[in-house]
Specification:
Number of domains: 1
Shape: elongated
Order of helices and strands: HHHHHHHH
Distance between the termini: 61 Å
Number of strands: 0
Largest sheet: none
Oligomer: single chain
């Protein structure tokens, strides 16, 4: 984050961030938000628990755990998020979509995968400082490969579960069509050539 850039300001509410964790967790097969975990031992988030096996996400409900990132860590997360996925001609920067809020919610949640990520992500962000320069960000893949790889994984995973991310990929989802034109003449010709080679 350069000195000219404005500090990151939270963009998504906790309810949205929590739903996002479920989506990213399911997409990456970590199962966040679907397994019951009770109070933690060994100094890990004492007295907190998850939502259980059947969370009612359609009803307003406060998160049963606090967000853990300090403001400095959040600013570092914003700088690194935009370093990984800056704005382009066709897509917004990661911070424009609230990716740092997702990162905060992810490492704050009391589930095994999130608790495993917590020290790695927080220590990496603390080492960066709230206003890392381009040289420091560019050095991360070699200087802190485990941190950078996991942080990038989370940023990209979250980004491409948003509408803007889908649009950037060209994914249109389940869009109904009145007609199906079928394969193009070029594809049909290629298929015919391959079938002829097989004697079919």
């Amino acid at each position: 984050m350069s000195d000219e850039q404005q500090p990151y300001v939270r963009k998504i509410d906790r309810r949205t961030a929590l739903t996002w964790i479920g989506v990213v967790g399911a997409a990456t097969a970590v199962g966040a938000g679907v397994v019951v975990y009770g109070p933690k031992i060994g100094g890990k988030t004492p007295g907190t628990k998850g939502y259980g096996t059947d969370p009612k996400l359609v009803e307003p409900a406060p998160a049963p755990w606090p967000r853990l990132l300090s403001d400095g860590e959040l600013q570092a997360a914003a700088a690194l998020s935009d370093f990984i996925l800056p704005a382009s001609a066709t897509a917004p920067a990661a911070t424009a979509l609230g990716i740092p809020d997702f990162i905060d919610e992810w490492i704050s949640a009391p589930y095994p995968d999130q608790e495993k990520d917590r020290p790695l992500i927080r220590n990496g962000l603390k080492a960066l400082g709230p206003k890392p320069d381009a040289a420091k960000l560019s050095a991360l893949p070699k200087a802190s490969p485990d941190f950078f790889k996991r942080f990038r994984y989370l940023v990209v995973g979250a980004y491409y579960t948003t509408e803007a991310g889908f649009k950037d990929l060209g994914y249109i989802g389940n869009v109904s069509r009145a007609t199906d034109p079928g394969p193009s003449a070029e594809v049909k010709a290629a298929l015919e050539r391959e079938l002829a080679k097989l004697g079919l």
